[in-house]
Design goal:
17 helices
Length: 408
């Protein structure tokens, strides 16, 4: 059955993205030049923040390995006022998403805007390879070298560059909010003692650390059947699941009132309890975004092995050249400083951040300072509910802001 599923999935990708085999570096209908010109023509501030009545600034930061990342700053709430000593909050999205993750809902339900309206200095970042962060000091996105990274590099380069930039701009320590892969990036950095001196607290929503127990049929089948490895073998170094033809088709389908298009997300994330079907239309206007195929291989390795290790080249010589040892080093999550305030929010219906995997993470963190750690569990929440749920403000954001205020 699993082999049949992966065969169908592979055929599905090839049928929907025939140009991928014509230009083997890309897994996309869209040419890179079109994406770059679009990102220059507009921006997240202009398209998603300013039309809602908020002040917004566009910023750029360059990582040590040369990637140019897009950041947006929302320094004030909709009511305006003066810039002052507002405490900064940095929001980091997950896999196949970008900073628009935090702006998909109406203003009173989007975390970025809720935080701004409640007195925080809000910063959004889009990871390398996404629409607004495709720049590099020397590499072009149509090159294989541009896509030679995994979340190891996101934790080692993207996150530090962003933290340092926000810290310099504001002169203050910041609160960090990660969703999904954004939580793994944060935990990986904190476990090495990095960024801690600039961090007031960290909120981990739908935390991804151990993923050996994920119940997402698509995620598990792809990992167990080495689908990402097959795509890379085909020469597809950029994984971009968003094609214009596919998006238009899905949006046409979603207009039908008899079809609940939240099921498109549920098939990956688990059954989200609290999404309006109309959110999918907004979602498809902006998401999903590109990642490297190598990054998907790294996550598949974690699913198969149940470990949190650096990328495995599956060759002792390559691993030695990269890491100085024949196998990739592990991230020791227990090394996260015990006095770093942590807010963990997870759901019982989440098939990516599975309850059993989160229990394993919490067992690793069992010696964390109890006064510095809050664990929030919502039985009916799945992976997308914390960032797109209609009741996320009451369920997640209000308690999260109270947590921030305690640890400010």
């Amino acid at each position: 059955m699993a082999n049949n599923l992966v065969f169908i999935a592979t055929c599905f990708f090839i049928l929907l993205y025939p140009s991928a085999l014509a230009n083997r570096t890309h897994f996309s209908w869209n040419e890179t030049s079109a994406v770059i010109s679009a990102s220059n023509a507009d921006g997240i501030c202009q398209s998603m923040v300013q039309p809602r009545g908020y002040t917004c600034e566009e910023h750029k930061v360059t990582t040590k390995d040369g990637y140019i990342l897009s950041l947006q700053r929302i320094p004030l709430g909709r009511a305006g006022g003066k810039k002052g000593n507002r405490i900064p909050v940095l929001l980091q999205h997950g896999l196949l998403m970008d900073a628009i993750t935090w702006l998909l809902s109406p203003p009173d339900q989007s975390l970025a805007l809720v935080l701004a309206d409640n007195g925080f200095d809000v910063w959004l970042v889009s990871s390398r390879g996404t629409k607004y962060s495709r720049g590099h000091v020397s590499l072009k996105p149509d090159s294989e070298a541009y896509w030679d990274w995994t979340w190891d590099e996101l934790a080692a380069y993207d996150l530090p560059a962003t933290f340092q930039y926000v810290h310099r701009q504001t002169g203050q320590k910041l609160h960090y909010v990660g969703h999904s892969l954004g939580t793994l990036m944060g935990m990986a950095a904190f476990s090495k003692g990095q960024l801690v001196s600039m961090t007031r607290s960290a909120a981990l929503l739908s935390p991804i650390a151990y993923v050996g127990q994920i119940t997402s049929p698509l995620g598990r089948t792809a990992a167990e059947n080495f689908l990402a490895e097959t795509l890379r073998w085909l020469g597809l170094h950029e994984f971009n699941p968003k094609g214009d033809a596919v998006t238009k088709l899905l949006k046409k389908i979603c207009v039908n009132p008899l079809i609940d298009c939240t099921n498109l997300l549920n098939s990956f994330t688990g059954k989200n309890c609290c999404l309006k079907p109309s959110i999918v239309d907004v979602f498809l206007d902006h998401e999903p975004q590109s990642s490297s195929t190598k990054n998907l291989i790294h996550i598949a390795q974690m699913i198969r092995e149940g470990t949190i290790r650096m990328y495995d080249y599956k060759d002792g010589g390559q691993n030695r050249r990269r890491y100085g040892q024949s196998s990739p080093p592990a991230y020791n999550i227990a090394n996260i400083p015990k006095n770093l305030p942590l807010f963990l929010g997870h759901g019982g219906a989440d098939s990516l951040s599975d309850v059993e995997d989160v229990k394993r993470l919490l067992a690793i963190l069992k010696d964390h300072d109890k006064n510095k750690m809050v664990v929030q569990f919502r039985k009916d929440y799945a992976h997308a509910d914390p960032v797109m749920g209609t009741n996320a403000r009451q369920v997640v954001y209000e308690p999260l802001m109270a947590f921030f205020k305690v640890h400010s």
